[in-house]
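Propose amino acids for all 85 sites.
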């Protein structure tokens, strides 16, 4: 991920899962916007062996291994939740 997003709740959620899985945070190799019916509904981040898919409507990031098996799903905290914590 680029340096501008490192402090975002989305980046923090992704970094926390990598830490929880016992992995150092790898470099994001590829990112793309996910489009359905002409509208952006999420983003996909491809790391070495793992991909993270953020679904905007649910504000959830799902993590998949290289075989497509889901490893974990986490809710991304909003800015308001971050301030309250």
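Proposal:
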């Amino acid at each position: 991920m680029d340096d501008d997003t490192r402090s975002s709740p989305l980046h923090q959620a992704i970094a926390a899962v990598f830490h929880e899985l016992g992995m150092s945070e790898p470099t994001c190799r590829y990112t793309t916007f996910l489009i359905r019916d002409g509208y952006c509904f999420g983003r996909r981040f491809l790391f070495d062996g793992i991909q993270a898919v953020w679904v905007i409507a649910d504000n959830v990031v799902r993590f998949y291994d290289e075989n497509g098996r889901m490893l974990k799903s986490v809710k991304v905290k909003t800015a308001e939740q971050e301030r309250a914590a």
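The chain has one domain: 3-78. The CA atoms of residues 9 and 77 lie 6 Å apart.
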